[in-house]
Amino acid sequence: MLKLAKLDFKLPELLTDDEMARVLVQANELKSWASQIRLLGVAPNTLFDGFFSSE
Fold this sequence. Notes:
Blueprint: H1 2-6, H2 17-41
C-alpha cells in the first residue's frame, strides 16, 4: 500500500498507464482490507475514538 502513497495522490489524468494499473489492483486490495476493519469497528460493544457507526 505504501506504493500508492508514493504516487502523492496525483490527479488521475496525470497517471501513466502503469501507475493507473497499479492503483486499480491495489484499490481492490485496500477496499477488501478496509471492509474487514469496518466489520470489526461496528462489532457490538466496540468503540473507537472518532468513529461513529449508525449500524
